[in-house]
Amino acid sequence: MQKIVINQTGGTEQLNLVDFELGTPGAGEVQIKHTAIGLNFIDVYFRTGLYPAEKPFTPGMEAAGIVEQVGEGVTNVKSGDRVVYCGALGAYATHRNIAADKLVPIPDGVSDDISAASLLKGLTAHYLLFLTYKLKKGDAMFVQAAAGGVGSILCQWGKHLGGYVIGAVGSDEKVPLAKENGCDVVINLSNEDFVEKVREATDGKGVPVVYDSLGKDTFEKSLDCLQPHGLMVSYGNATGPVSIPDLGILSRKGSLYVVRPKLFDYTNTHEELVNNANALFDVIQKNVVKVNIGQKFDLKDIAKAHNALENRQTTGSTIILP
């Protein structure tokens, strides 16, 4: 058995691969052999220390695998079941013990790779579209990082719901990917002014909702894309955390609203987790949402995976093979 351990937060050199032994699962727990691990920006936040964790720790929030042992009192899964989870630190490992109520059964027709590549990102897209801002048919939406892991799912699902999808990407290579994801308009941040282009695409009105996962570098200009009373959903900080020293900026730009949500406030109960996951798997099985696994890395190459993600060299989702 192997896992990644972080003793001190910092750069990718802090990602240490070690051998370990795993005890039997306790009451309410199961032991899983991982088959695929999801890579997410939240992993970077934990590695750098932006999000605190007691050290030493094993990073990673999402993985799929096979149940090998079941602890006392567990009734929702059994040995041999294929399962997936997100929101439980410690996924960068070949095996782990985990609370059974964190697990979601993987339905037939959905692979372990797709499950690990999509659960955290897909549940994020679900709450963004259905719970944080309930997208209505005909609504315009502006999505930063439209070719990324969450952005790819968010744009496809939003288009399916009848949204007018405007997406922004960071390079020429990502423009066709965003179009494949259902974007009606694609903006290339490397050579286009996204505020100007969003206004142009909406006849000067702006959009009722912006979904921004980039953070510091785009936050203020993203506000300029909103129509009066519009909602700015800042759900990530790939370019750095956002601060608003002057709340008056919201009134000056049209009595705007801002929310900084996180996934795990929308999956507080096992029932919520499973219901939202089933909604995701339903659109995946119906090919409404196609999950693009753009990259795969071995667990021993986790530093390369982090570097690619941070430098915006990835497209779609990335998985780690244990």
Describe the structure.
By secondary structure, the protein is α/β, with parallel strands linked by helices. The chain has two domains: 2-119 and 266-321, Medium-chain alcohol dehydrogenases, catalytic domain (Quinone Oxidoreductase, Chain A, domain 1); 137-260, Rossmann fold. 28% of the residues lie in helices and 25% in strands. The protein contains nine helices and 15 strands. Helix 2 (112-132) packs across helix 3 and helix 2 (112-132) packs across helix 8 (270-285). It starts with a strand and ends with a strand. The model has no long low-confidence stretch (mean pLDDT 95).
Summarize the structure.
The protein is of the alpha/beta class.
Mean pLDDT: 95
Please provide the count of β strands: 15
Q: Measure the end-to-end span.
A: 10 Å
Give me the Rg, rounded. Answer: 20 Å
Computed structural class: alpha/beta
- CATH C-level of the largest domain: Alpha Beta
Which percent range describes the beta-strand content? 25-35%
What would CATH call the homologous superfamily of the largest domain?
Medium-chain alcohol dehydrogenases, catalytic domain
Spatial shape: globular
Main sheet characteristics: 7 strands, mixed
CATH topology of the largest domain: Quinone Oxidoreductase, Chain A, domain 1
Number of domains: 2
Query: Strand-and-helix sequence, N→C?
Result: EEEHEEEEHEHEHEHEHEHEHEHE
Q: What count of helical segments does DSSP give?
A: 9
Helix content: 25-40%
CATH architecture of the largest domain: Alpha-Beta Complex
- Low-confidence segments, ≥5 residues, pLDDT <50? none
Keywords: NADP, Oxidoreductase
Pfam families: ADH_N (PF08240), ADH_zinc_N (PF00107)
Protein name: Quinone oxidoreductase
InterPro entries: ADH-like_C, ADH-like_N, ER, GroES-like_sf, NAD(P)-bd_dom_sf, QOR-like
